Amino acid sequence: MTETTQFRVMDFDCSTCASIVERALTKVDGVDDVEVHYTTGRVEIDHDDGVADPETLAQTIKNQGYTPQFA
Amino acid sequence: MDTRPLTRYVRKHRKVIATSTSGLLYGGGWSLGYLTDLHTASIAILILAAVVGGYDIAKTAYHELKSRTVGIKTLVTLVAVGAIAIGAYWEAAAVVFLFSLGSYLEGRTMRKTRTALQELLELTPDTATVRRDGELKDVPARAVDDGEIVVVKPGEKIPVDGDVTDGESAVNQAPVTGESAPVHKTGGDEVYAGTINQEGALEVTTTGAGSDTTLQRIIRRVEKAQEAQSPTESLIDRFAKYYTPGIIALSIGAFAVTRNAMLSLTLLVIGCPGALVIGPPVNIVSAIGNAARSGVLMKGGEHLERAGKIDLVAVDKTGTLTKGETAVADVEGFGVDAPEALELAAIAEKKSEHHLADAIVDAARERPATATDGGATITREDDATGVATSTETGSIPDSDDFYVIAGKGVIAHHEGREIVIGNRSLLADHDVTIPDPVAEYVRDREARGETAVHVVRDGTVVGVVAMRDELREAAPSVVQELQNTGIETVMLTGDNERTAAAVAEQVGIDEYRAELLPEDKQAVIEAFQDDDRVVAMVGDGINDAPSLATADVGIAMGAAGTDTAIETADMALMADDLERIPYAVTLSKATRWNIAENVSLAVLTVAILLAGVLTSYVTLAAGMLVHEASVLAVILNGMRLLRY
Fold first, then answer.
1. Does A40 touch chain B (CB under 8 A)?
2. Residues of B with CB under 8 A from a CB of A
3. Neighbours of B335 (CB within 10 A)
């Protein structure tokens, strides 16, 4: 089932950081579409819930050095 | 000893700790080298400063490279490593510390912009009191089903969207509409999640809960608007794609020619157009966030930039400059008495949905009819005896047939007679002559800004109904404010010339265009655009949808609750508050200025730095300092719009 999960990342500190998180998330198995916005800190991910769960996605963002909040 | 709280503290404040430690080490290492002969110790401390401050930067740089991007953090890491390699320890530590401090401050200030909407989100209460199985239960607000009754006590926030089914109160709707004055709510009225019930208890039938509320929809739309790229942003993004590799090539080229490693490293420091890239969006995010809190929804940066160029505002008269509550001001009979003329008009207009028709029918219902009809009690007896009488339309009989002539009036038949209700143009089409006393009466009413319609029975004018739509109190001052900012104002109306002139004069508007059919309004806007004017159109979002779409910037009034208006308009005023228009227009202009300021500041900084580096006036540390300062300057400049 395709789900849409939204996070808020309040600690992006440069505009390229957002695009790097976006690329990292795109590479996760089961992720269909990713939008990461530097200015609003909003992260929206369309993903197959059976393959990539929200926890995995949150961990991916954490691995890049940022703090995701569920929104 | 339990070290977990300490670990958690360090993790949470990692950036501050790394930055300040790096700063202290840098200061210490530098003093040691400057004041004493302990050079090796000084070098060690400076390298430590670079490592402490640079660890996280290098980590992101690694991720940047892995995803094949060359970002600022890659460049900074490269510079620090390079500087250490050529023995410029002091510079390496300085660059790392300054960048670390700069990005900490950038993150902090951006967080402020990002949380501007958070305040709105937090307004919705988490729990709702629901009447279930005859009992009151507290449940999570998002778990309330449509149709369930929610009880809201005085002083509480309303947790769901819904219709009032019981109770009466004043509700502060500022979070949704930006209106500061509380709105009176009683049975049948709509209420919104996030608004505050001030006086009495209300029972509300839920129509939307959780993420399906007006407030949530507004927030989603505002965020999408903030994220949408404006033309300036896309232009800069395209430029930035070539700029960074360009500077890297320049740096390599400079080293090949001059063999000056320091010069090449300094070039890399200024290789990221930081201020240029975030300069425009930070303004747009701030401005759209600010507008949302004041009840103005903007569709995106593109529209905001266009709105900054507005030099003409066209305003629909009815419902925009006026309250949109047309009422009959006077009725004059010619050959018949006034109540009879009004009743004829009401019979013909009964099935029409035009706002003038509503006013006529309402007036006819309030006045006792001409004939033997005794009033309300008789109506009830009719019901009892099975005679079909619509209670809603009182004692006004149905017409046999009825046609609307758009923009002109109606034609109906009743008891074998033809009734025509309309303006001069309709009468002319039907070869009805207008006697002098009628023409004089009509002219007199129109000169007062009223709309007069003729009542014609079988080809003879038997009466005139004069209707009035009160001006909004704010209309003249709003027009004045727009004029003060150098914007021309034009009123568009379907009214005849004389009525329009009278209203235009009362409002003080620059120009007016009268006797317009709906499609004419669109043509008028196109004509202005052909004259190279940037036109904003203010209307009600439903009837004026075509002209709102044609205008460069369509501004819909009173959009709360009408999703179509929110979707189609470039700007939507949640409240029916005309005074938001000058605010929205001047905010857009201020945003456009701010973008221009930020772009020029960024370009100027890069140009000066580039020139300074190439002529060896700017050193590595100074280059970093100026670069970071310019980034912070554009962010702080943009944030002024949050408080506009």
1. yes
2. 15, 56, 59-60, 63-64, 67, 69, 71-73, 103-104, 106-107, 110-111, 113-115, 117, 223, 226-227, 274, 277-278, 281-282, 284-285
3. 12
> Residue A50 pLDDT > 60, yes or no?
yes
Nearest to B63 among A24, A38, A40 (CB): A24
> Shortest CA distance to B282 belongs to which of B232, B226, B243, B330?
B226
Residue B64, token pair as written in the block: 């940047």
- % pLDDT > 90, chain B: 27
In one-letter notation, the amino acid at residue B110 is: M
B350 residue type, one letter? K
- pLDDT at residue B389 in the model: 39
Alpha-carbon gap, residue A68 to B437, rounded angstroms: 77
Confidence of residue B534 (pLDDT cuts 50, 70, 90): very high
Nearest 5°: CA angle at B146, between B144 and B147? Answer: 110
pLDDT in tens, A10-45: 888 777 788 889 988 999 999 999 999 888 888 999
Chain B residues in contact with A8 by the CB 8 A cut-off are 114
For residue B377, give the H/E element and its range. helix B376-384
> How far from B506 is each of B321, B474, B480, B578, CA to CA, in Å?
11, 12, 12, 16
- Which residue in chain A is spatially nearest to B56 when comparing CA positions? A65
Distances (CA, A) of B482 to B320, B437, B442, B460: 15, 41, 33, 46
Task: Among A14, A23, A41, select the one facing B73 at the smallest CB separation.
Answer: A14
Per-residue pLDDT at B111 exceeds 60: yes
User: Which class for B393: exposed (0-12), middle (13-18), buried (19 or more C-beta within 10 A)?
Assistant: middle
- Cβ burial, residue B467 (10 Å; 0-12/13-18/19+): buried
The answer, for A28 touching chain B at a CB cutoff of 8 Å, is no
Q: In B, which residues are within 8 Å of A16 by CB distance?
A: 64, 69, 71-73
At residue B107, the 3 state secondary structure works out as helix
Q: Is A43 exposed, middle or buried (0-12, 13-18, 19+ CB in 10 A)?
A: buried
- Residue B367: pLDDT over 80: no
pLDDT above 90: residue B223: no
Chain B contacts of A38, Cβ < 8 Å? 110, 278, 281
What would the DSSP string read from start to end of B197-263?
E-SS-EEEEEEE-TTSSHHHHHHHHHHHHHHSPPHHHHHHHHHHHHHHHHHHHHHHHHHHHH--HHH
ipTM: 0.81
Q: Tell me which chain A residue has its CA closest to the CA of residue B71.
A: A16
- Residue pair B552/B529 in contact (Cβ under 8 Å)? The answer is yes
Query: Does the predicted model carry a pTM greater than 0.80?
Result: no
* Non-local CB neighbours of B351 within 8 Å, separated by 6+ positions: B398, B399, B402
- Find, among B143, B162, B138, B145, the residue nearest to B214 by Cα: B162
- C-beta separation of B303 from B453 below 8 A: no
pLDDT tens for each residue of B167-195: 989 998 877 777 767 888 988 899 999 88
Q: Which conformational region is residue B259 in: left (phi greater than 0), alpha (psi within -120 to 50 degrees), or beta?
A: left
